[in-house]
Amino acid sequence: MSNDLAKLINGPADEKIVSKVGDQNNRSPTKSRNPKTHKCQVCTREFNRLEHLNRHIQTHTGE
């Protein structure tokens, strides 16, 4: 099979590689990783989960 005929059937190899890499780069995360939204009012530490904040508050109250 000639090189030109192979390109028509399979397409150029370089374009396939570029399109695969381009697909990975176009992904954008909808959420940021580890958003810290629950803040301690005593020491200003931040936690991802409310239950972790509630457990932390016990260190301030002595429970």
Account of the 3D structure:
The protein has 63 residues and is mainly alpha-helical. It has a domain at 34-63: Classic Zinc Finger (Double Stranded RNA Binding Domain), CATH 3.30.160.60. The protein is built from three helices and two strands; from the N terminus they run ααββα. The protein has a two-stranded antiparallel sheet with strand order 1-2. A hairpin with a 6-residue loop joins strand 1 and strand 2. It starts with a helix and ends with a helix.
Short description:
The protein is mainly alpha-helical and 63 residues long. It has a domain at 34-63: Double Stranded RNA Binding Domain, CATH 3.30.160.60. It has helices spanning 3-10, 13-25, 50-61, and strands at 38-39, 46-47.
Q: How are the SSEs placed, and which strands pair?
A:
Blueprint: H1 3-10, H2 13-25, E1 38-39, E2 46-47, H3 50-61
Antiparallel strand pairs: 1-2
Helix content: 40-55%
Report the structural category.
Answer: mainly alpha
Q: Number of helical runs?
A: 3
What is the CATH architecture term of the domain at 34-63? 2-Layer Sandwich
Number of strands: 2
The whole-number mean of residue pLDDT values reads 75
State the CATH class of the domain at 34-63.
Answer: Alpha Beta
For the largest beta sheet, what order do the strands appear in spatially? 1-2
Elements, N to C (H/E): HHEEH
| CATH topology tier name of the domain at 34-63 | Double Stranded RNA Binding Domain
Low-confidence segments: none
> What general outline do the C-alpha atoms trace?
rod-shaped
CATH homologous superfamily annotation of the domain at 34-63: Classic Zinc Finger
Largest sheet: 2 strands, antiparallel
What integer value in Å does the Rg equal? 27 Å
Terminal residue distance: 79 Å
* Estimated share of beta-strand residues: 5-15%
Family: Belongs to the krueppel C2H2-type zinc-finger protein family.
GO molecular function: RNA polymerase II cis-regulatory region sequence-specific DNA binding; zinc ion binding
GO cellular component, one term: cytoplasm
Region (Disordered): 20-39
